[in-house]
Amino acid sequence: MGSLTLNNLTKSFGKTEVIKGVDLEVRDGEFCVFVGPSGCGKSTLLRMIAGLEDVSSGDVMIDAARVTQLPPSKREIAMVFQSYALYPHLKVRDNMGLAMKRAGASKPQVEAAVDEAARMLSLEPLLDRRPAELSGGQRQRVAIGRAIVRRPKLFLFDEPLSNLDAALRVATRIEIARLHHELKATMIYVTHDQVEAMTLADRIVVLDGGRVAQVGAPMELYNDPANTFVAGFIGSPQ
Ligand code: ADP
Ligand code: MG
């Protein structure tokens, strides 16, 4: 299971409120895409869901359990960042296994989980390399593999393809879609790319200035945008 509920979530940095009361339900197994202009709060919202950022008010629930005060390691969430965030001194296999090892799993358990994730992403030939010996696309596949290792309830992706060239973006997008089907996992994916949003999403959440402007299936937003802001993002002529 892996449903997510956000209840009237807010976040202020100093006196500036950047998330202004977000309510959202993401269903178990859903692929939910957050879109919106730079600075609208996409990363902040994702970091609050992951527990990397404190909330100012409101609640984060996973499978109806309140996790608002739990540290990231206790939330059964894995996050993939635009910048990969791999440890440069560790081999791929150790980057992938680190969180599970820290959580107290035995060496054979960690090895089995890393091997399985590596198989799913065809990373076996790379397991003994260090990040500096990988291309950008390979690093991002390792970061995705690392997210799979602990079989989280919820996957969070923050613009994971932004640093890749056009061909790799398409290939990696297709790989993420395949993983979604294979794992039947709940995924929340931030992008400012309309093609990624339209092709990956079961539902798109359009954010505008820290608020939800509209939520709906891609074709619902395309055919019936709530306002010109949403129309501008989804590309439907008004
Ligand atoms: P997005 O990911 O949609 O581009 P962010 O979530 O990164 O937007 O940022 C939303 C707003 O919050 C921006 O105005 C940004 O400058 C501000 N912000 C983000 N992180 C911090 C921080 N640690 N301290 C102060 N302001 C921040
Ligand atoms: Mg961002």
Shape summary: globular
Question: How big is the Rg?
Answer: 18 Å
According to DSSP, the number of beta strands is 10
User: What percentage of the residues does DSSP assign to strands (E)?
Assistant: 25-35%
Terminal Cα span: 39 Å
Q: What spatial order of strands do you see in the largest sheet?
A: 6-7-8-3-9-10
Tell me the quaternary state: single chain
Low-confidence stretches: none
Question: What does the secondary structure layout of this molecule look like, with pairings?
Answer:
Blueprint: E1 4-13, E2 16-26, E3 31-35, H1 42-50, E4 57-62, E5 65-66, E6 77-81, H2 92-102, H3 107-120, H4 136-149, E7 154-158, H5 166-183, E8 186-190, H6 194-200, E9 203-208, E10 211-216, H7 218-223, H8 228-234
Parallel strand pairs: 3-8, 3-9, 6-7, 7-8
Antiparallel strand pairs: 1-2, 1-4, 4-5, 9-10
Helix pairs in contact: 2-3, 2-4, 3-4
Bound molecules: adenosine-5'-diphosphate and magnesium ion.
Task: Spell out the key features of this protein.
single chain, 238 residues, alpha/beta, six-stranded mixed β-sheet, 8 helices, 10 strands, globular, binds adenosine-5'-diphosphate, binds magnesium ion
Structure description:
The chain contains 8 helices and 10 strands. A hairpin with a 2-residue loop joins strand 4 and strand 5. The protein starts with a strand and ends with a helix. The chain has 238 residues and is α/β, with parallel strands linked by helices. Helix 2 packs across helix 3 and helix 2 packs parallel to helix 4. 37% of the residues are buried. The site of magnesium ion has 2 residues, from helix 1. One of its GO terms (cellular component) is ATP-binding cassette (ABC) transporter complex, substrate-binding subunit-containing.
